[in-house]
Write a structure and sequence with these properties.
single chain, about 80 residues, alpha+beta, Multidrug-efflux Transporter Regulator, Chain: A, Domain 2, 3-stranded antiparallel sheet, about 10% strand, globular
């Protein structure tokens, strides 16, 4: 088996549609004006009134798609997903 090293420069060459840009807890926190720890606290308490539900749970942690965050932000405050 031959191991192949992936360079960060190579990863930047991969095209990802704008709507599917991936955010981790730190990036989501910056986007919403929270600290990473605050995002993780809301996540652990399953408080999805202040943060959107993650799109995927990876071994390294939760991730969100930019498209989903934009959709979540446009939902009215009274929406059950945002009012928890």
């Amino acid at each position: 088996m031959m191991l192949v090293m992936v360079k960060e420069a190579d990863l930047n060459e991969i095209d990802v549609p704008d709507d599917y840009e991936v955010l981790d807890a730190t990036a989501l926190g910056r986007r919403l004006g929270f600290k990473r720890d605050t995002v993780l606290t809301y996540l652990s308490r399953r408080n999805f009134g202040r943060i959107p539900r993650p799109n995927r749970q990876l071994a390294m942690g939760p991730i969100w798609y930019e498209k989903s965050v934009k959709e979540w932000e446009t939902k009215p405050e009274g929406d059950s997903e945002r009012a928890e």
